[in-house]
Structures
1.
Amino acid sequence: MTSQTSFSGQDTAFVEDFRTMSTFGATANGGVDRQAASTADGEQRRWLTGLLQEHGFTVKFDRAGNQWGLHEAVPGAPYVVVGSHMDSQPTAGRYDGAYGVLAAAHAAFRLKAGWSDAGAVAPKYNIAVVNWFNEEGSRFKPSMMGSSVYTGKLELDTALSTTDAAGISVREALDAIGCRGDFAGPEAACCAEIHIEQGRSMERDGVTIGLVSSNWAANKYEFVVHGEQAHTGSTVIEDRKDALLGASMLVVAARELANRFPGVLHTSVGQLNVYPNSPVVVPSRVNLLLDLRSADESVLAEADTLLHRRIAEIESLANVSVEQHHAHSWPVTPYPREGVELAAKVAADLGLSNKSVMTVAGHDSTNMKDLVPTVMLFVPSVEGISHNEHEYTTDEDIVAGLAMLTEVANSLCQGALEPAGTR
Amino acid sequence: MTSQTSFSGQDTAFVEDFRTMSTFGATANGGVDRQAASTADGEQRRWLTGLLQEHGFTVKFDRAGNQWGLHEAVPGAPYVVVGSHMDSQPTAGRYDGAYGVLAAAHAAFRLKAGWSDAGAVAPKYNIAVVNWFNEEGSRFKPSMMGSSVYTGKLELDTALSTTDAAGISVREALDAIGCRGDFAGPEAACCAEIHIEQGRSMERDGVTIGLVSSNWAANKYEFVVHGEQAHTGSTVIEDRKDALLGASMLVVAARELANRFPGVLHTSVGQLNVYPNSPVVVPSRVNLLLDLRSADESVLAEADTLLHRRIAEIESLANVSVEQHHAHSWPVTPYPREGVELAAKVAADLGLSNKSVMTVAGHDSTNMKDLVPTVMLFVPSVEGISHNEHEYTTDEDIVAGLAMLTEVANSLCQGALEPAGTR
């Protein structure tokens, strides 16, 4: 996994910073465990503060725990916001999110240095590096929490009052790592984010840069399956109301739905909790989270109908009731066409192979694109492995992505994409 | 649920003690939550100590946390051991186990009082009331822990070193409630236990006393399903190794097995834990406990074969591997015929309707019967509800069961069943 390419001094510094960054919350298997507002997340944030300050950036935490590195080249002007998130899933990979924040920081360092050159043209907008709080949503739901508050999609108080499984609130957890500020966040002009693909398509097609044109639509449901406690041994089968049997049938049904729409529907149950979860008690309650995702909204609508039809059957077959506790969904939404075109031109100028891709996963830029012109970029993931300690992207690709992000951010700072209100 | 029958003073005292006992760890829905060595378990044990001491019994805790109430009527003679367990499942009923301990205590009080009457015949054996530690096994596995140590089936150190989900050992938990002693336990001559049926058969047949003739055979397996972490959204379905899908197929397979042998095979999965259990991560590992139980050992053997055949299919269908981590099983074993005949005679003398039954659930007497002549008795469970806050047995039945247990214990103390070595 060591690189044969010889990098420039700047690129070497970036790769070295990436290695250092990956030590925070490092796991024995080469991954990281840095759930939102954990000790490791806090330590890494302090490290990022130091790195940004060394390069002359002003660091502020906003009220939702987002970490900002600000450079004001044009007094009073809005900011081009560049970044991603440094929190991770439990036993996750080193690249997801963290790469995008560090690439944003190094891109901003390069822009700032360029602007201070003699004879440099002053930018139109300032540059802000952002480390969004809790993109992953594994400890505190929902995911993309920090960018949702910043973009006005989630109430600050709702976010801060959210608790983890141990009953600790976001407010308490952020205070514990010293990362809750009183900053409102900068005024954004545009946004750019770079991320690993978390799929195989770019690797398969041999391209270095993905130009994200839109996101898949998703339906996310929280189901509660209700049964009744009974003795697992002595209770006759006909008398049982086994919530775990009902839940298991639902997990299987989700996969059967995906098999019915091969390649165009992704389904999953990632979280499932059993009560009372005792060896000799028929479970009375199971809570589970089930997702349906597709690039085709009509497929998603049909899958939703089929899922609910199957749930009615499961209620009868397993002698349980299934309650839909909470659901949220998002449609297929495009990233601005002008941004994709700008990125395609930058990639061509840099001689980087590229193609248009969709993102199945949600990203903070999915929120930001509804607020300001936003460019989303991908670099390849080896074997598409993600949310896994073996997640990997080559040094060549992370360095190429940094070059790409730097030039896109530069163009945005020069006013290449005007905010909707000013066009 | 109040009784219309007018009871004797002794019976009223028993019913009142039962009400008092049910306040320890009482839940809002009329049940109890008194897991082994919990605070509520400790408080209830102290209450039992007081009750036993009031009646002149010597109370000792043995090295495995079993609570003994001893009355030595014949210096140096072995003891007839009568009792059950007071620990419970989470959100359980008031009768399971606790009824048997309190009935044992009141039976022993009556025997002791009888023996002190002028002209009473001295018994051959002494009487010991026992409250076995951790019969339920919900907090610390395995179940029937205290009686397993007493009967030499489980090493004391193994039991004391067992930890709960929070990492607290049995040793620490027993010390925390002050219930770990240095007593080795009394020498047992015979054993009797009374318990609720936890099924519907006695209620259906309208009998008051069940004469337990044998236990169902059981196979208990711990399976670990291994998959691989991946992103629930972006990972294509063919690349997924979803441990929860495999585990869910196993839960469904267990029920399908039961359906294949209607009425003669009981199957269940009561406990299932998912890792990393995050909304957007394909689970990499699921641990689950699966039980097969039957009165027919050939059915159990066939079910075991079919289960393992199905597991091989599931490994292929879900792209996972299934590891059988731990398994233990027990055969159909009879309670001694002489004990069943003795109990039938006692029931007939008392005018109590009775029938021979098998027990599907395990009991401490299942251990004791391998050590000394043992009599196991049931009273009916209304609607067969058990391991549930709505578990219920009528006051008439618990009082009838107490009369039955008293006379059986009396006969055993008189030497009606001789220990194997002395016959």
Note: The mean pLDDT of chain B is 95.
2.
Amino acid sequence: MTILGGMELHLWFIEEQAPGMALALKAMGTIHREKTEYQDLAVIETIDAGRALVLDGCIMTSDMDEFIYHEMIVHVPLCVHPSPEKVLVVGGGDGGSIREILKHDSVKQAVLSEIDGKVVEAAKKYLPNTSCRLDDPRCSIMIGDGFRHVNTHPAEYDVILCDSTDPVGPGIVLFSEEFYKGVYSSLKDDGIFVAQTESPFYYRDLLSKVSQTLKGIFPIVKTYVTVMPTYPGALWTFTLASKKYDPVTCVRRVDLKTKYYTTELHKASFALPKMVEDIVGA
Amino acid sequence: MTILGGMELHLWFIEEQAPGMALALKAMGTIHREKTEYQDLAVIETIDAGRALVLDGCIMTSDMDEFIYHEMIVHVPLCVHPSPEKVLVVGGGDGGSIREILKHDSVKQAVLSEIDGKVVEAAKKYLPNTSCRLDDPRCSIMIGDGFRHVNTHPAEYDVILCDSTDPVGPGIVLFSEEFYKGVYSSLKDDGIFVAQTESPFYYRDLLSKVSQTLKGIFPIVKTYVTVMPTYPGALWTFTLASKKYDPVTCVRRVDLKTKYYTTELHKASFALPKMVEDIVGA
């Protein structure tokens, strides 16, 4: 014991994000931990990335870069639709997407359809920066199955976002053709859908399949990219499917307080790296 | 010993890229290791990222993503200059930048000014995918000080690239005003300079200072971004300084075999995230 005297506790959270590749974050410790009906839920306090929500051992959101993901999944479709009033988020229990959606004055109602109520509870309690707008009167939280929700709310939404976990566990159905057909039916005639579709470094086949499947349902389907330092592969994709508006040519310049998104970056994010073009088509 | 019977050797290379944040790569082992005059040099064979060159404990290049860095540092300036014939790389001993430069038919001579000859030797021997064009007759390798080189070769180059290590150790002088003045003098009247300028997540002040310093020397200075999964922060910047050609409006469409670069991505990479605009100016 003597030789360790005076040293600090070094606790490392290590996520093996791909076979043989891990992100390690030094942590002060666990703020919260529980087994929910659906998953293992933890909130950790890290030195470098701030607070992080960890589901089944995978970082879902951290203070370091959550703004990139949430701004890019939200503002791209909401600045394309001419007047988004009703928006649905499937997943997204941390509240980051809701926070960004409510920056748009046109939005009258933002509905969160999260299957695991414990994620919402933990976010409200332990992730105040991300969940800060979940109690807004324009936000409705529905704890339940997003798949069922889109299939029982026809022609209701201007924009639907799939802010899902990876395609494992409870999130897997949210990458299926059946879900996308439900999304199509739940959107109004000029509606827009965006899904997070993982990194081309590790989910090449998934990205290709989602793109192909959506092209069979929607007239306009385009992939866009961003960078997520805490996610496996860092190069991250979103796939946008639209009934009417082209996401590159129909961009409105909206006055938004952001840390990542700009109108120019919106357009630029549809210019794909060759390796992504090769997966989804140019 | 019995309880470990049958298990494989698990060797993890762990690079603490920022205080409290590390990238970990499972490795088959060390291919090569030496102390050179300038640094600790290692080549490791990883499971997920292929072969990696590690200098002073930091990954410089890996098979996984070296093509992104090298394509983006090279093809942006070489597709802006109307006819780049003579190109200088300061640093870049792994040979990746030379490989990309020699894809341009206009180039008559690519000069590599690398201070550590052992890096070039190790790359030739152990990193064949990256170093494959170092023996090309159009490539001249000068082992020596890049700072001295630019100050003794006036008005000689069409394009100069600073493919340096981080601003520590031997690389620190390559981020100085004196070096940039030497670069300016070593470029022809319509020359272009590009430097790798780290991640805005961890080198905010450096990025700001380099941009400001170059704006005091060159008439046109613009920052562009890419994603480097194995580098700290993943969101990576390059700063381009040009005597005559605007890097966004003067892009030539060159027929290149690439994995990342496209003409559209070239233009898009100058659309900066708000957090980068805030550092370097819009």
Note: The mean pLDDT of chain B is 95.
